[in-house]
Design brief:
There is one protein chain. This protein has 66 residues and is α+β, with helices and mostly antiparallel strands. It is built from two helices and four strands. It is globular, with a radius of gyration of 10 Å. The two termini are 19 Å apart. The chain binds copper (II) ion. Copper (II) ion binds next to helix 1. Copper (II) ion (CU) binds next to helix 1.
């Protein structure tokens, strides 16, 4: 299932690469797309229950999920 998250603190390509790297370490993540202008992160997982670990990964990368 695809989810859209509002994420604060992303402002350059470095942020995008970092956030993608942390999220891709989560099991079951199939797709990640970041729109820094809209402060939106789109993520697709094989199972919705993985969302918690994705949010945790974003926070571990140093960003805030609103
Ligand atoms: Cu940055």
């Amino acid at each position: 299932m695809r989810k859209i998250l509002n994420v604060d603190g992303m402002n350059c390509n470095h942020c995008i690469e970092k956030i993608k790297k942390f999220i891709s370490d989560c099991n079951g993540v199939e797709f990640i797309n970041v729109d820094i202008d809209k402060k939106i992160l789109e993520v697709e997982m094989d199972d919705d229950s993985k969302l918690d670990s994705v949010i945790e990964a974003i926070e571990d990368a140093g960003f805030l999920v609103k």
